[in-house]
């Protein structure tokens, strides 16, 4: 999680103990706006109150509201994913998927399947991730949610790049690029697409184009203080400059290592140091 994003986390009021239907209903009325805010922030990788989500899960069970429970478990999964607990996140997404299927809620099913794909992607099981993303597509309405479809194209493109299927990746990423670049521009997702396009172009040995995409990506993340993504772009730039025979390629890795240390991601920082002399 980016440290600069934590300070902007929405404030919440949590009633942890509710007694009877009246208090349960009051809790729901009081906290529903905060839950919706948590959902929006979780989608962008920001901090979410674990206490609020645990209280929400308790309330959903008390109400017997499986639809709400599915949503809350999905948010819990996002929190665990953000914390790097892939196994815990996947358990919550499996549970939210089962509840969504019981409710017949295609939108919730799509969200849970996509999240399970992200877990697989983070765990370097990219073919499994692609298989899960394939299950998402028929549950989505591309006319109703073009942004959601574009995110799916971005995620697929990321796994396709990792698998070395660069042409197919660029097809997906170009489609996503058009959506995110259209007004109102989605600057963060546009920067994410440019990062993956840079990786794909570098894989095709089109170094000049790759560098251009990565520099635009870096500028987009720097403008919004997205530290983790800045570090990842620096890693990709190190690969581009090394292939080009430039002597300063290590400088990008040094900066990536510094950025990871800045946010307390020592595991990633150690990984980067292993590449440095």
Describe the structure in brief.
It is built from 14 helices and no strands.
Question: Can you lay out the helices and strands and say which pair or pack?
Answer:
Blueprint: H1 3-6, H2 20-43, H3 50-63, H4 66-82, H5 86-103, H6 106-122, H7 126-136, H8 146-162, H9 166-181, H10 187-203, H11 207-224, H12 227-243, H13 249-262, H14 266-273
Explain what the structure shows.
This protein is mainly alpha-helical. The chain has 14 helices and no strands. α8 runs parallel beside α10 and α12 packs antiparallel against α13 (249-262). The longest helix has 24 residues, at 20-43. The protein is globular and about 60 Å long. Residues 1-31 and 38-46 have low confidence and may be disordered.
The major pleated sheet works out as: none
Distance between the termini: 28 Å
Mean pLDDT: 83
* Shape label: globular
Q: Helicity range of the residues?
A: over 70%
Question: How many runs of DSSP E, i.e. beta strands?
Answer: 0
Low-confidence stretches: 1-31, 38-46
What is the C-alpha radius of gyration, as a whole number of Å? 20 Å
Element pattern in H and E: HHHHHHHHHHHHHH
Assembly level? single chain
Number of helices: 14
Q: How big a fraction of the residues is strand?
A: under 5%
Structural class: mainly alpha
């Amino acid at each position: 999680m980016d440290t600069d994003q934590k300070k902007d986390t929405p404030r919440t009021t949590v009633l942890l103990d509710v007694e009877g239907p009246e208090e349960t209903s009051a809790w729901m009325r009081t906290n529903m706006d905060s839950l919706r805010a948590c959902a929006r922030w979780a989608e962008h990788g920001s901090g979410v109150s674990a206490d609020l989500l645990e209280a929400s899960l308790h309330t959903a069970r008390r109400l017997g509201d499986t639809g709400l429970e599915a949503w809350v478990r999905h948010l819990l999964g996002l929190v665990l994913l953000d914390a790097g607990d892939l196994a815990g996140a996947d358990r919550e997404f499996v549970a939210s998927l089962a509840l969504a299927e019981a409710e017949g809620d295609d939108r919730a099913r799509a969200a849970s399947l996509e999240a399970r794909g992200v877990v697989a992607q983070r765990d370097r099981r990219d073919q499994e991730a692609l298989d899960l993303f394939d299950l998402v597509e028929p549950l989505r309405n591309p006319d109703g949610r073009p942004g959601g479809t574009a995110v799916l194209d971005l995620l697929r493109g990321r796994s396709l790049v990792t698998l070395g299927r660069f042409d197919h990746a660029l097809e997906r990423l170009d489609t996503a690029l058009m959506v995110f670049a259209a007004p109102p521009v989605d600057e963060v997702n546009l920067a994410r697409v440019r990062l993956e396009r840079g990786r794909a172009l570098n894989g095709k040995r089109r170094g000049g184009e790759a560098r251009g995409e990565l520099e635009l990506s870096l500028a987009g993340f720097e403008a919004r203080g997205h530290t983790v993504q800045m570090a990842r772009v620096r890693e990709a730039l190190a690969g581009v400059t090394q292939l080009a025979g430039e002597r300063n390629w290590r400088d990008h890795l040094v900066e990536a290592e510094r950025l990871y240390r800045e946010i307390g991601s020592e595991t990633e920082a150690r990984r980067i140091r292993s590449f440095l002399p």
